[in-house]
Structure formats: structure tokens, C-alpha cells
């Protein structure tokens, strides 16, 4: 708003900026000042003529505003009284008139400005009288609706007031923004100001009435709830007198469940404590449902319910043999476990807990999980299985604390409760695939559950009481062991599951898989037969695996195609022959014999161990004119690259024995490659094969195609012991090798190799590379 200042009414006065709100003429109020500049202005005015100007700030956050941060219309006021407290100055002021700010004359200790009084525009008419009366009426409605106004202000407004005084005084107490109040201050015509104040007061009345309606509804609801609670308490008291209360029956039912659960003494005390707490709470209390759920968990757990171990040992062994072919070591270990339990029961030994946790380790598809079910059947116990693959939250094992909404026990306690026995066969599948993140490490939580010395008092966060897991027979499964933390691996007895031989696969397919797929695909057991030659063909030419899953899928494919013919009312085949397999499975996927048809220079057959069992690999060496560089390719790991360098160093240091020139390597570049370059390869066991491939290429002596080899090599030519002998030998047998060279120290490991494989393969045990040379290379 821009005004033309009259020199007659100009004044030089102290200025006190107002952070929030607007001071109007015709009002009396108490203002509190805390900023040093404002305090100084008020004190200076009080010591002189007590006159001071109040101008509102455009932005209340500005600490020391100048002329640009102040509205140009303010109020001239008189300070009636001052009161100083510890940190603030309180002033009782009275608004006198409107003033416009001309300029700031001083801005040091406090603001001093040139101001001019601005007269109001007042007209006398019947309309003004009506507007004034209407505003008084609206003000009374606002008071009735609940607007908070002090008594002195109400008496002053309802008394005799001019229209200008009425408009300013009501404008001051309106609950509106500073900008809207400033607009009222700058409205000079009293008629217009009355209209604007009435409009703003009407808006405030609507808000007050809405708030009162909401408060009334809330109060009614609260009163109704209080009444219901009171009536419920009266009903409860009456029913208790008559002995007919539902809640009393529920408490009695929980009391009976606690007695029947046969809990340990400490757990029973905890349950009774929670039950007493439940009795004291109002049924509408939010914690009632939490306590009931908790008591249900405590009473439903099988604290003393166990499955008796009354299965004869011979019968248990027979059950294992019925369900699984081979796996003699595993079956032997389970029968030993059962025998120990029998002896403990006969001698009435108090400590009947199992002292070991079994871990079945092996490639996929070899029967680890299914053997767990067979063990439970052989022991006459219940079987429960949980998969740990992908679990990253510790609470999955130990549960959540009861303070969380929707808290539950961990998966171990949940499974024990669901199975209803405290001594089941409990399988923790895929323990090697447990992860860890910001929610904790589940493998660390498993340490207690899988430790025979600790799990008799397993602590679940939800239960808050110990549960005895020592009677549970825990079995874990894993494909690899290196991903299992050492502390957890140390608590388990590792039982390796090697890959199946061809004879074992044939027996499994004939006795189990073929019959299973006939039933699964709706074919009568005696309607379709498969010849032995066809089964051998499927195993040799359509699968290359350690387990039998791919074999089962191929048999399922045959059954589905036959089922389709029957469904289409075509004549089904009576049997599946070797010659007819291509119609069902397509062309052969794998070659039965080695890829190399004859002995070649610079190519040697090595043996490898993978997650899927054993396999063969070829080491190729190429020589090129060059400067003595060595290239190693085939996605080799660091250890395997070092084996290649060690093999080359051996050849260079034994150049005379091998019939080579002393500086043969200076004019040659040597390239060592292991095919199937997309597959990562690592480990020291290829050292012997790499050395033989190098010597073959340099001496031009062909490597025998029917000879496979494995072993770590040293710079002095020693052949060191390696692992995975059984899997590697089975892979050699599967590939059709006739001779296998092994480190001498691995001779003991042939005990685990099936007799059929040992019968078909000739084994050479070497301690030096010189012994390997005589067998691996042709003369």
C-alpha cells in the first residue's frame, strides 16, 4: 500500500518489529519482547513520551529486520506499564491509531523511523449500524461455539463500541494468518473493514462448529466404551458369583492345558505367571490376545511327547535298503545310531541325546533329502524338513521377540510344534546356501541348535524359555562344504555322498524310477516295459551327471509320449527298445567314448572334481615360435595357473633327462589350454596332467588316449596326494578310460570305489613324474 505522507502529522518514533501477528488500534494487550533491539526500543519509548510504533514482519524468521522486511502500515501505541523478568520484557500497550512508515532514520541500538498517522474513512449510515449489529451477533455465536476469549475483552466488545473499535478489536482476536490481519489493518474504510472481519469470523465459526461436532462424536464414543466396560465388569462379577463366566472357563481351560503339557518346572512357572497376568487384564486390553497366543504356543509344544524307538535294528536296515540303492556307508551310520539308542534305553542311561549331527554332503540328485525321510521311517519317528536356502534373517531360526507386532517363534520351534513330537528326524536342507545381511547371520543362530552340548536348552526369542532339542535327530544337507562357516561345520559329522556309477544308476532306474514314472503318468505298471539295453543307452548317451535327476526326467519324457498316444487312441508300444529311444528322446546327447579316437601329441586326459561329481577334462599344449612366453587359458584359477608354471619349471630343470636342448624354451612360446573355457577351473590336482601334456608336446611323444591322470606336482617331480578320488575314478569309468594314474598316497582311497569300477580299470600309483612318463606317453 502506498501513501502520501503529510508533513503536518509526521513523527520520529522508536519502532518495535512484531514477529507474528498484528497490533491494531483500539486494543489493549500485553506484549513480550526478547530481542535486544526490540527491548531497547521499548525502554527508550517508556523513558520519553511512552509512544512507540509496531510494524509486523513479512518473514518472522528474520532476526534484525530493516525497512524492506516490514509491512508499511503499522500501529501507533502507548506503553502503559513495563515488567522485566529474567530474560524477557513484558509491556502493557494500548493501540492508538494507524501509521504509515516513511523511512528508517536510525538502525543502531534500535530502529527509529519517520511515520505519519493515517486517518480512518468513516461514514454514518443505516448500513453501518446494521453491519455493526450483525458483527456483534456473529461474535456472540463464536463465543457460543467455543472460541476462547478472555472475559474483559468480551465485556468490552459487548459494551458500547464504535464501529471502528469493534472491527479492530475483533480483527485482533481472529485466528487467521498475519497477512490476512495486515490486510485488515490496511483497510481504511470502516465499512469495508466490517465486511471483511464478518467474513473471516463466519469462516472461523464454521471451523469451531465442525470441531465441536467431532468432539461430541468422540465423547459419545468414549462414553459408550466406558459404559460397556463398566457393564462388562458387572457382568463378570455376577458370572463369577454364579460360576458361569466364559472368561473363567477360558482361564480354567488354559490351566488344564498347562498341567497336561507336562512342562519343565521353570517353564510351568513362566506359564502360570502369564496366566495370572491375563486374569488381571480387561478383556478389551490389547495385550490380552498377545498373552493368549503366547500361552497357546507354550501349551501346544511337545515338552514330553516323544515317539518310542521300538523298531528292530534288522527291520530298520531293511527299510533303508528298500528305499535306496547303494549308499552303504550312510545306511551303516544310521543303523549304528539306532543301536546306540537301543543300548542306552536298555541300560536306562539318563543322557539319551544324540551326540552327533549328520551332514549329508554331495552333488545334486544323489538322494540326500529322500534318505532323510527313509531314516525317519526306519527309526519309526516323525519327519520334518525345512529349507534354509536363501534365508538371511536370524529371526527365521530364533524367532522374534514378543515386543514386535505379529511376533512368532523361529522355524525350528514352529516345526516341532506342528509335528507334535520332541524327537523327530529334523532335516535342515541346503545348509550351505544360508546367507547373512543387516538382519543378522542365521548360521550363527544355528550354532546353538546344532551343538549337542548346548541344544538341550535352546533359547527362542519368542518363547523366552529353554526348549530341549537334544532328543531331535538333526540331519543337514549341502552340495558344497566350503560355504559353511568353520564353527558350524565343526559341529557336524560329514558323510559324503559320491556320484552313482552306471551300474547303480541302472539298478535305481529299473527298481525305482521307471515304476515311479509309470504311476506318475497314469500308465499301468505292467502295460509298458523298457529293456535293459534301452536303460543303459539312456544312462550313457542321454545323461552325464552324478545323480539321477536328469535320468528320471528322460524316463518321464518317454512315459508322457506313450501316455499321449494312449489318450489319442493310438496303439501304444508294448515295450521301449534301445533302437526306438530316438523317437522319444531325440538324437544322442553325449558320446560314450572319449572324443579323441587315437593317441595324439600334446593332448592329455585329466580328471576333475566338480559340484556335480567327477568329470574328465583335456589338457592341450601348443608350441609356437616366440620368445619363451607361457600362455594359460580356459578360465583357470590362480592355483591351476601356478600348477602350469610349476610343470614348466620341472621340464626346464630336467631338460637333459627328457632329451631336450638346454635353451629350448628361448625360441618357443608355449600355450596351455583347457577346453570348455566358459567353466571356471581351479585346484592343484591337474599338475601331473599339465606336465605330461608339456612333455608330450616338447618330445613329440603321443599321449595315450585310454589313460587318465590326476595329482599335484612339485618342482622336484614329486606327485602329491589329492582329494575326490572316488568321484574322479567313477568319471574315468563313465568316460571309458582303461588306466588311471593316481598319487601313491591315494591308494587307501580305493576302498570307497565300487568293485565293478575297480575291476574295469587298471590303477597306477606314482610318487614321481618319471613313473607317470612310462605309462602316460607312448614310446
UniProtKB/TrEMBL annotation:
Gene Ontology terms for molecular function: ATP binding; ATP hydrolysis activity; ATP-dependent peptidase activity; sequence-specific DNA binding; serine-type endopeptidase activity
SUPFAM superfamilies for this protein: P-loop containing nucleoside triphosphate hydrolases, PUA domain-like, Ribosomal protein S5 domain 2-like
Keyword Protease part of the UniProt annotation: yes
Inducing factors: By heat shock.
GO biological process: cellular response to heat; protein quality control for misfolded or incompletely synthesized proteins
EC annotation from Swiss-Prot or TrEMBL: 3.4.21.53
Reaction catalysis annotation: Hydrolysis of proteins in presence of ATP
Residue stretches making up the Lon proteolytic domain: 598-779
UniProt keyword annotation of Nucleotide-binding present: yes
PROSITE patterns in the record: LON_N (PS51787), LON_PROTEOLYTIC (PS51786), LON_SER (PS01046)
A Pfam family: Lon_C
Domain Lon N-terminal: 13-205
Broad enzyme group: hydrolase
Assigned protein family: Belongs to the peptidase S16 family.
Subunit structure: Homohexamer. Organized in a ring with a central cavity.
Role: ATP-dependent serine protease that mediates the selective degradation of mutant and abnormal proteins as well as certain short-lived regulatory proteins. Required for cellular homeostasis and for survival from DNA damage and developmental changes induced by stress. Degrades polypeptides processively to yield small peptide fragments that are 5 to 10 amino acids long. Binds to DNA in a double-stranded, site-specific manner.
The protein, known as: Lon protease
Gene source species: Candidatus Shapirobacteria bacterium CG09_land_8_20_14_0_10_49_15
